[in-house]
Amino acid sequence: MNTPPHFGTDTPRDLVGIGIGPCNLSLAALAHPLAELDAVFYEQRPRFDWHPGLLIDGARIQVPFLADLVTLADPTSPWTFLNYLRTHHRLYPFYFAERFHMQRAEYDTYCRWVADQLPGLHFRHQVDAVRWNPEHDVFEVDHTQLDTHGEAEALGRTHTRNVVLGIGTEPYIPDALRPLVDAPGVPVVHAADYLTHRDTLLTAGHITVVGSGQSGAEVFLDLLRHRPTGHEQLHWIGRTDAFAPMEYSKLGLEHFTPDYTRYFHALPENTRDRLTTAQWQLHKGIDATTLAAIHDELYHRTLGGGWPDTVLTPGVRVRTAGRIATTKIELHLEHIQQNTRTRLTTDAVVLATGHRERSLDRILVGLDPYIRRDNSERPRVDEHFRLVLDPSVTATGCNIYLQNAERHTHGVGAPDLGLAAWRAATILNTLTGKETYPLPTRTAFTTFGLERPQPRVPAARQAAPTLTPLVDRR
């Protein structure tokens, strides 16, 4: 809904959510039945949109449909995906489709259905700053209401006891490729905007896709399906050693459980940092179905003899890049294992280089004196997803919570949709001080760490063993 918020109210709210992506939408949906909780959410976009540039026909989310906004915390909620299907008279078609993973476009539509009905969601509201008011023991959230053209229409300030930051991620462009994006002429687009520019890209003679993750595979497959046989002229490169499948074994998936999240959080900072890099295949690999579809397309094009005009090269990084006479692009490539270099001339580039967490600095600059940081100057986050702040703030019961910005403290599952409902329920339980949503105490068959060891007593100080007399049983 888009009803205007109450500006300048004297009574502080219980909760202000900043950003309305899947994570904060999950929180809003689970907070909705809690009559005692006064919550409001702000989003600068005009409506809910989930990666609109990647809603390619047939592309599916990589988690089962049970990982909707609420089911894994409250399957009786009216905001479940199954209730969305029931409301739209689509339960039986979904049942007979026998699909455990919904399409990306369907997930986007489902989330928008929830967002359009929940009260307290305010779009076209840009949050400019969050400050601590020590005189009244509240946070001050300054925000700007935007008109349909994105211009400032009104200024507001909301007082709140708690803030939840769910501002999501933004497209990442490596430094070597950044000059290409800023210059006009030859099409160079991030995969996040792929569908917006697809028609223009398809007119290019030669297209290069950079990035060996799921979005790169989906873009390459879509381009392949839209290019004529024998004239594909597609090149797909990526830094990883192979176009590797996502780790999708049953026990491997247990890294996306609350059990693993708690285990990861308790590890030393340097161990967490090492694991974050080493576990790339848990979240940056490619769905095996997508890889199979690419191979099927390529194989089909060999039935008449010959090979498709495509090149797929893993293990390659782009050292530098530039434009040639404003009509072509030259990529300077280096093969990591061979230690060889070459140049690739192309007419268009799609940067499937992923997303990175948005910087919190702009919004939280006013809180900087209160924020406690780790050895790498990142905000520390406790096990309940709260920023570690100066005790003068937290002693009042006021807190800042993070959603999808805590991978460095909570591990690979931070951006995973399958943990969104659990994390939102954890936040609400902590905020209300009661078990509003009962959560499971165990979620994985894997035990990720050893039990806390007992203190070892030096041999010289150990008590002598008790001897049992032998009994003659003859």
TrEMBL record:
It comes from Streptomyces asoensis. Belongs to the lysine N(6)-hydroxylase/L-ornithine N(5)-oxygenase family. The lineage of its organism: Bacteria, Bacillati, Actinomycetota, Actinomycetes, Kitasatosporales. This is L-lysine N6-monooxygenase MbtG. Residues 455-474 are annotated as: Disordered. It holds the Pfam family Lys_Orn_oxgnase. The keyword NADP applies. Its EC number is 1.14.13.59. Keywords: FAD, Flavoprotein, Monooxygenase, NADP, Oxidoreductase. GO terms for molecular function: L-lysine 6-monooxygenase (NADPH) activity. PANTHER family: L-ORNITHINE N(5)-MONOOXYGENASE, MONOOXYGENASE. Pathway: Siderophore biosynthesis. Its cofactor is FAD. It catalyses: L-lysine + NADPH + O2 = N(6)-hydroxy-L-lysine + NADP(+) + H2O. The keyword Flavoprotein applies.
